[in-house]
Structures are given as structure tokens and as C-alpha cells.
Amino acid sequence: MSESFDLIVIGAGPGGYVCAIRAAQLGIKVACVEKRATLGGTCLNVGCIPSKALLHSSEHYEETKHKLADHGVLVEGVKIDLARMLARKGEVVSANVKGVEFLFKKNKVTWLKGEATIPAPGQVAVEGTTYAAKNIVIATGSESIPLPGVEVDEKQIVTSTGGLELEKVPGHLVVIGGGYIGLELGSVWRRLGAEVTVVEFLDRLVPTMDTEVGKQFERVLGKQGIKTKLKTKVTGAKKGKDGVTLTLEPAAGGAAETLKADVVLVAIGRRAYTAGLGLKEIGVALDDRGRVVTDGHYATNIPGLYAIGDAIVGPMLAHKAEEEGVAVAEILAGQHGHVNYNAIPGVVYTWPEVASIGETEEQLKARGASYNVGKFPFTANARARAMGDTDGFVKILADKTTDRVLGAHIIGADAGTLIAEIAIAMEFGASAEDVARTCHAHPSLNESVKEAALAVAGRALHI
Ligand code: FAD
Ligand code: NAI
After folding, report:
1. Are strands 172-176 and 263-266 parallel, antiparallel or unpaired?
2. Is 462 within the bounds of a domain?
3. Which of 159, 176, 303, 391 is the most exposed, fewest CB within 10 Å of its CB?
């Protein structure tokens, strides 16, 4: 046996690297194994960060080309340098992953480079060396779900990874799956000039979000030129020199049709990734979707073995993985780490953005809850009008009896930032009145949150 550690974390995504840093802060001797050449996992390398870099760059282009003239700013000859845009995205990723490497050094986290296996409880093998570990945290993340009959080559038929690297703007991009990835990357390439069609199996986009928000989202994306084919499934793909021919069928069955695409993006969800760890061999329980089964303290059925992030149940979001990383490190240090799963925001970083926290109206109805709704449109917000970004609204749901905020759903400019004030309100068990009586700066988009909170009691001031 080589060196031993108090804790070995497997995977250096936002779950794993944050867990390792927090453990080191608490005096735990910790190593983190990562097989990728750089730290940061899916999120920093091929997920959150590169997608947001391209969303920002493409938004600048769209704004310059189509929105600035309205503000009296005239720019002629606007062109895209896609190679530069992609290179910039690479620079942003590089700065971020190096940042994690710096944090590991600063906190004295040992990076064990290579692929980890767990030959036995309390042991982690990396590149032929076996290390002893009092505790092990699995933070191996997730991978794209493949679609039978639609074989990914990352050139003509791509996952998000290839969709972040297209060397030229496709004439027609068909996105399979109207969720987070499909709508964010669909927006990027639409702004850069592609015709975009989103094929979604269910009857609405982002089906996990509040229905009213989803419907408004579909209208706004439609105005931007994104076409949607709802209640439709893709049953096959034929690649040719001049593109891909997809076969589509109504989700409920019926006559097939074909759709031609230059590039197809498969974005029908992600699944836990634990391949090659040797979990079956040591008897770790997995659920029917391949996720590691854990208890309320992230412990698996094997003593000393824990799991967090995309590899376990829950929303596949970087900040959820981070919170779990912190919580499990604190639990291992004898503290009381915990995550409030009722207050995890979800944000789609399109323009306008869509943000959601807590329960949706559909969830409240399903559990028979009595609630009040407060809504405020951005058309009535002075700052949104000054910006020229009046699409969307803020919707707050509060308990009818106690007025406690149960959820909030926002579509509009900077919705992802606005939702943070509701996250804090919910963490403190605030009532809608607490939010409504908080002084909000004027003129700010946040005033729409205050107004929606006032509207819960039927007393919005500016509408
Ligand atoms: P990961 O980030 O997947 O990290 C797991 C790491 O473990 C990987 O680096 C992998 O190489 C490593 N690993 C796996 N097995 C082994 C092994 N045996 N040995 C060694 N290393 C191993 N979430 C958001 O919150 N906001 C966003 O804006 C956002 N945008 C996204 C955009 C895209 C295109 C994608 C694909 C995802 C996005 N996500 C976003 C989701 C987010 O990336 C994930 O929820 C998050 O990365 C999960 O973190 P994790 O630590 O659980 O796993
Ligand atoms: P998703 O779960 O968000 O959306 C997948 C969509 O595909 C759903 O609407 C689903 O109904 C549909 N679908 C499933 N099977 C289908 C089929 N056969 N044909 C047509 N449609 C089908 O998954 P996505 O977009 O792949 O992203 C994976 C995860 O990554 C997200 O759930 C999210 O957790 C995370 N992510 C988060 C982002 C953010 O926070 N901004 C951005 C990108 C990804």
C-alpha cells in the first residue's frame, strides 16, 4: 500500500473539487483523483463555463446586429470571427481550470492524476498504485444519454461537447430535446445565424419548470426564430455527405416524416457516470437509473464510501453538487453539513433567462396545497423598459395561511441573478410580505421581485 489519506475524492468536478477543498480547510488529509488532463469536471471543461462563454459572445453579436440601432448606436459591417469566439471560450475554460489547480495547491489537496478504481472498501487504485483511504467520496458526475438510432460522431451528430466546438455555423441545426442544453446551445447557434429546430418528446419545453413560464419561454424563443416540434420523437438518423436525414414520429405514434439537418445536437438528458470504478464488484447499491444510492448523509451501503453530485439523485446542477461536496466534507469532520433541497435554483441562461426555485404551481396543486400567486410583468418595470428588455414576468408562490414563500419562477432579463434574493428569502423562511417590505433600489429589475411579492397580497403598486 502506498500513501494513505483521511479522504480520497474521486472526480474533480464542482462536487469533488469543492469537497476536497472544504475537507482540507477542516484539517482532513485529502487527495482528489481526476482522469481528465485538467481539473473542474464537466462544468468547467465542457459544460457550464464554455457554454456561458459562447452564450455571452453570441449575445454580444445579436445585440450589436439587431438591438443597438434601437438605442441609437449604429454599427455597420458586423461580422463573426467564429475561430476567435471559440478561442476565447478556450481561454475562459483554461483560466478557470488553472484556478482550481491553484486552489488545490493553496489548500494542500493532492491531485492524483489518472483513472480511479475502488478495489476494496478503504482503497483507491490509480495508475497501478493503491492508496489507503479512511473515507472515499464518489463524485464521478454524469454523461450524455445516447439516443438509439442516432449515433453520435461529435461532428454531424453531436452531444453538448461537440456542440460547443462546431467549426462553422450550421445551416440547419436540429436539437433533439428541449431542455437546458438544447435551448442554451440552440440559442447560441441561432444567434450566430443557424436555422434551429427543437424536437421535444413532451408537450412543452423545459418540462421540469413551471408550465406558465415554459409556455411564455416557448413564445419568446419562437419570436427569436427557434422552431419547436413538440410531442415528437426521433426514431432514426441517416448520415450523408450533405447532412443528416432524421426520421420523426408523433410521440404517441403515427405517420413518420423526415427532417434534414446539417448538424444534429442530441440533448435528451444526462445519466450518472460510474463506469470502471468497480462498484458492482464491491457491492455498492445503485438505483434503476444507475445512480449511487445514498442516505441523508451521502453514505452508500458500504461503510466509509460516500457519493455526491450528478452521480446521485437530484437535479444535475453544479451548485447542487458543490453544496453536497461541502456538506459531506463537514459531516466527515464531525460537523452538521446539510443541503436544503427546497431552495436550489435552476437557471436556463438564454436571453431572456429563465430561473426557478422551490415548488411549481403544478407541484403545489398535486399535493393539494393552498397558496397565493403574485405576478409582475417586466413591461411595468422602469429599468426593464430603459434597457429595452421587457419580455417576461416574476411569479411568486406563497402559502395561503402563513404567507411563507414556497417557490418563485422568473422569465426575464437577468432572471438567474434575480432568483438569488428568493433563495435567501426561502433559506430564512421569509414570507412574501418580508420580501415586499424590503427596500429595493430604484430603478432595478429586482423591483419586479418586490412587486410580485406585493402582488401575493393583491397590492402591487406599479400595475
Ligand atoms: P462532473 O462535473 O461531471 O465531474 C466529474 C469528474 O469526475 C469528471 O471530471 C470526470 O473526468 C471525473 N471522473 C469520472 N470517473 C472517474 C474515475 N474513475 N477516476 C477519475 N476521475 C473520474 N450546471 C449548472 O449548474 N449551471 C450551468 O450553467 C450548467 N451548464 C451545463 C452545460 C452543459 C453543456 C452541461 C453538459 C452541463 C451543464 N451543467 C450546468 C451541469 C453541470 O455541469 C453538472 O451538474 C456538474 O458538472 C456536476 O458536477 P459533478 O462534480 O457531480 O460531476
Ligand atoms: P434536460 O433533462 O434538461 O432536457 C432533456 C429534454 O429532452 C427534456 O425536455 C425531455 O423531455 C426531452 N427528451 C427526452 N427524451 C427525448 C427523446 N427521445 N426525443 C425528444 N426529446 C426527448 O437534459 P439536457 O438538456 O440534456 O441537460 C442535461 C442536464 O444538464 C440538465 O438537466 C441540467 O441538469 C444540466 N444543465 C444545466 C444547465 C444550467 O444549469 N443552465 C445548462 C445545461 C445543462
Report:
1. parallel
2. no
3. 303
CATH number of the CATH domain containing 54: 3.50.50.60
Which of ligand 1's atoms lies nearest the C-alpha of 161? 34
Residue 40's closest CA among 9, 21, 12? 12
Q: Which protein residue has the closest C-alpha to ligand 1 atom 12?
A: 11
Each residue's pLDDT tens digit, 137-170: 999 999 999 999 999 999 999 999 999 999 999 9
Residues in the chain: 463
Query: pLDDT tens digits for 2-48?
Result: 799 999 999 999 999 999 999 999 999 999 999 999 999 999 999 99
Q: Could you tell me if 89 and 57 are in contact, meaning their C-beta atoms sit under 8 angstroms apart?
A: yes
- 215-222: long-range pairs with CB below 8 Å, 24+: 216/392, 216/393, 216/411, 217/183, 217/348, 217/350, 217/354, 217/411, 220/352, 220/391, 220/392, 220/411, 221/183, 221/187, 221/350
Q: Is 442 a catalytic residue?
A: yes
Which of 66, 71, 442, 462 is labelled catalytic? 442
Beta bridge partners of residue 408, listed in sequence order: 357, 396
Distance CA 324, CA 319 (A): 9
pTM above 0.85?
yes
Say whether both 131 and 276 belong to one domain. Answer: yes
Helix/strand/coil for 360: coil
What residues make up the domain containing 404? 343-456
How many Cβ atoms from other residues are within 10 Å of residue 265's Cβ? 26
Cell of 245: 436525414
Q: Is 51 in the pocket of ligand 1 (CB under 6 A)?
A: yes
